[in-house]
User: Fold this.
Amino acid sequence: MDTNAETTEKTGGWRGSRKVWLDAAREAFVTSGIDAVKIQPLALRLNLSRTSFYWFFPDRAALLDAVLADWEATNTKSLERATQEYAETIAEAVLNLIGVFLDGGPFETRLDLAVRGWAHQSDEVAARVHAADAARLEAIRTMFDRFGYSAGEADVRARTVYLTQIGYISMQVRETMDERLARVPDYVATFTGRAPTGSEVARFRARHEAQ
Assistant:
């Protein structure tokens, strides 16, 4: 078999693909916990042979590490990008950040909750959660710094924004989109000390009501 053919077989076809196995593992993890992420049950779910798994991952530990890497790329990186988006005011910057967490946004709250649950069983995972939290807080602090807040105020406001959202996740708060959107202007005023303008709120609502 030539190299190109071998590469094709390792990334698709009847063996599935790395993404197919990873997506299945993530869904099992989010819905049933870390103990559900096992090779044979995933193979049955995908209607693939168990040996197909080993074309993409050397073992279960590598798959679990890929789930963690996917969580970091999906959630931490999306939050960091939001804090760096263009904004003329701090209110607009915080609206950009809040939008990440809404339904249809890139931050996957069920995945974040699942990883935090996993951290209670693993010191290694707990360390990665702590590192992710630190990176997210630093990104939000930097956002406030950019708009002229003092170091101490930027730190406390960043914590207020982030810990509020983590509270939403850990408490599994259920709100309709209308309820959440109605609260957003007051959240922004609380987080920043400055009320968003009507046009800023209108743009935010239009963007997320469309989702």
